[in-house]
Amino acid sequence: MIGTVIYYVLLPAARLLRALRDAFFTCRKIVLLAKSTSTQIEGVFAATSERSVPEEQEALLQQWLEEGAGNLPASESVPVEGEVSVALSSDWLEGSELLMTSLSDLNSAPEVTWCAGQQLTELHALASSEPQDHELAELAKLPVEKTVAVAGSAPWAAVVPQTDHQVAGCAALDVGVQNEDPAVLAWSLASEEETVPTDPPAWPIQNVVQFYPFPTEVPYHEILWRDWEDLSAQPCVPEQVSKNTPLFEFRVMSYNILAQDLVEQGVDLYLHCHPDILKWNYRLPNLLQEIQHWDPDVLCLQEVQENHYWEQLEPKFKEMGFACFYKRRTGTKTDGCAVCYKHSRFQLITVSPIEYFRPGLGILNRDNVGLVLLLQPLLPEGLDPEAVSPLCVATTHILFNPRRGDIKLAQMALLLAEIDKIAKTTEGSYYPVILCGDLNSVPDSPLYKFIRNGELFYHGMPAWKVSGQEDFSQQLYSRKLLAPLWPSSLGITDNCQYVTLCQPKKSGRRKYSRDFLLQFHFCDVACERPPQLVLLEGVTDAKPDRPAHWLKPAAMVEDPDPQPFIPRSSGIIQHGLNLTSAYSHFLPQRGRPEVTTMPMGLGCTVDYIFYSAEPVENGKSGGRRLYQDGALKLLGRLSLLSEDVLLLANGLPNHFYSSDHLCLLASFGLEISSLREACQGSDNQPVASFCARLNFMLLPSFGASHG
Fold first, then answer.
1. Distance between CA atoms of 502 and 420, rounded to whole angstroms?
2. What is the C-alpha separation between 62 and 54, in angstroms, rounded?
3. What is the mean pLDDT of residues 45-55?
4. Which of the ends of the chain has fewer CB neighbours closer than 10 A, N or C?
5. In degrees, to the nearest 5, what angle opens at C-alpha 160 toward C-alphas 158 and 166?
6. For the Endonuclease/exonuclease/phosphatase domain, which residue ranges apply (predicted)?
7. 621-641 b/e (C-beta count within 10 Å ≥ 16 → b)
8. What span, in angstroms and rounded, lies between the C-alpha atoms of 592 and 588?
9. Is pLDDT above 80 for 628?
10. Contact 183, 32 (CB under 8 A)
11. Looking at the predicted structure, is the pLDDT value of residue 639 above 60?
């Protein structure tokens, strides 16, 4: 009697676990086959055709154990394999296109079905009676059950029955069917799919853990879904973007795509990943598909391997309509940065690659690089090309080492000095600037605040504190930043400007003619006898008399309104670009911080898109400078994910995101100055209609829809 009770109590649990296991095998194989080209299938799953299907299932089971069940306590294990019925709903969309498809367009998701109604009915009937003493004695003789922990529910025990058939839809399924391909088996059972009860009945047995149905695996596209945030009309923005304001709209993407050489050099960082998804032949199509889907007008890439760029990436980007520039890291490094722009939307004015390595300078002895471009937006025919301002785009990959914040600041100062040179107008102002890349610094770190607030007092600061990546405060000795941070021979001022540009020559300077020197003939210093001068009568005892008509030279007149001067040893660095972040670094819906990467399973933000804005007058909040949109307006952005969401997808990289970083994407609008007054607030219907048509023409791809 007691054996029958245990059998019916734990039979559904064992079936559910086996059902989920085979569903995992089937879904993964379908997705990977759908994502792979015909030439790639051989390297992923077709190679398994040489062994039998049970061997393939065993290998996949071992992979699943390593990724999921391997995290169970040592006292717990997974039941033995058995037959199972798996059903997949129709219209199931495979591949990473799931991430790009609206949820409303998905008819259904994978479902694991099992026949449990009849067993539950019998179970409750048997459980209503209390077990007798002799039955408990028989229970003690039974083998120990195997315990499995289910995410989101209490642990449950399972005794795997020895059976030669499995109930599916209350009908017997022959064992021979299990020897078929799992995908074929799943589709053959789709017609027998049943609805799984969501709320289990009350559990009448005391001191026994209640059984919860095993949760169905959530599809990756639902876990990793990223929303598009429209910021063009928000109540918190002081100055709204009028519908009649003509804007040149464009999208900017920043993406650290993870160089393959770095993957192979740091294998220990990716032990959580299946080896197949780390192969370049798998990652490249994923990366290209993601970039092609979001269709940015400006693309900034980091960790771009040189041979992959010239042989694969640049030819593909040219097919997509991009003009590309690449800068490899110095020394023996094999990766670098790239900036690509749609030649149908922008025209190049100038490009300036930056090398941060400077021989002989210990603070600039690393091989990181950057790129700065000045682009002219292209307007439709009939509009003045100079009606819209040029755009400065810069990207970089700052040093990773968390202990060397001094090097990070020096590299950023060089980049800002180059931007200052490229983006400065003849009037002394700046063109709109977009600075993006992997800065290896977390939000609200000193380096982040320096970029956003335009000022940083660094003297005496521990070097590890600059980026905020790790806390080394417990160490007995830590490097401290001392002023000046870099030598004057670098040619960069503490205002992050080149010396030759910030100190223009004055007219008449260094013209030491006779007349110029005679102006100082009767100055105060010249009319005083030096105390060390040997007194010689008739020679050095004479004191000149200052004539009444003598005027003080203009060069010696004090400036009544001198400019504030910051000495080189003050320990303060500044810049005047007025940059703010396109992202808020926090997800209010989830109450968690945004994440752009997950090194060693810990989520953090190190990738940014900064853009030019106008500081609010007397606007500061908690030491942060407040900004509002100027000529360059932030219109939208692609939302980021939180750490807990990425953990559900086994971190980064995974089957759908083939880099250890998430891409950043933001939409901007540049005002067209000559038409702004004509379009804003116009009550004239023809003028308003013209402006509406103009805005449509100025959209990316001239009216193409970007979802």
1. 10
2. 12
3. 43
4. C
5. 120
6. 253-661
7. eeeebebebebbbbbbbbebb
8. 7
9. yes
10. no
11. yes
- Measured from the Cβ of residue 645, the count of other Cβ atoms closer than 10 Å reads 18
Q: How is residue 558 written in tokens?
A: 């004090």
Residues with Cβ within 8 Å of 207's Cβ and at least 6 positions away in sequence, in order, are: none
- Residue 364: both structure tokens together: 């600039």
Task: Name the token pair of 323.
Answer: 């003009």
The pLDDT score that the predictor gives to residue 91 is 38
Nearest to 355 by CA among 324, 396, 325: 396
Predicted confidence (pLDDT) at residue 198 exceeds the cutoff of 50: no
Confidence of residue 12 (pLDDT cuts 50, 70, 90): low
From CA 692, how far away is CA 682, in angstroms rounded? 12
- Average pLDDT score over residue span 557-580: 71
- DSSP readout, 395-456? EEE----TT-HHHHHHHHHHHHHHHHHHHB-TTS-B--EEEEEE----TTSHHHHHHHHSEE
CA dihedral 607, 611, 613, 616 (to 10 degrees): 10
The pLDDT of residue 140 is above 60: no
Q: Quote the mean pLDDT of the chain.
A: 73
From residue 627, how far is each of 39, 391, 450, 621 by CA, in Å?
Answer: 52, 19, 15, 11
Nearest CA-CA partner of 262 in 243, 283, 241: 283
Residue 45 has pLDDT above 60, yes or no: no
Q: Where are the alpha helices (DSSP H) in 569-660?
A: 643-648
Name residue 439's amino acid.
L
Token couple for 136: 């408990």
Which of 113, 110, 57 shows the shortest CA–CA distance to 84? 113
| Both structure tokens of 526 | 């010249």
Reported confidence tier of residue 507, pLDDT bands at 50, 70, 90:
low
Evaluated on CA atoms 208, 210, 214, 220, the torsion sign reads: negative
Specify the residue for token string 């309104």: 561
CA neighbours closer than 13 Å in the CB half-sphere of residue 293: 15
DSSP reduced 3-state for 669: strand
pLDDT band, residue 196 (cuts 50/70/90): very low
Q: What is the CA radius of gyration of the chain?
A: 35
Pick the more confident residue, 135 or 303.
Answer: 303
Q: How confident is the model at residue 554 (pLDDT cuts 50, 70, 90)?
A: low
Contact 391, 377 (CB under 8 A): yes
Give the C-alpha separation, 61 to 26, whole Å. Answer: 11
Please give the pLDDT value at position 478: 87
- Position 166 pLDDT exceeds 50: no
Query: What phi-psi label fits residue 355: left (phi over 0), alpha (psi between -120 and 50 degrees) or beta?
Result: beta
Using an 8 Å Cβ cutoff, are 624 and 452 in contact?
A: yes
Is the backbone peptide bond immediately before 201 cis, with ω within 30 degrees of 0? no
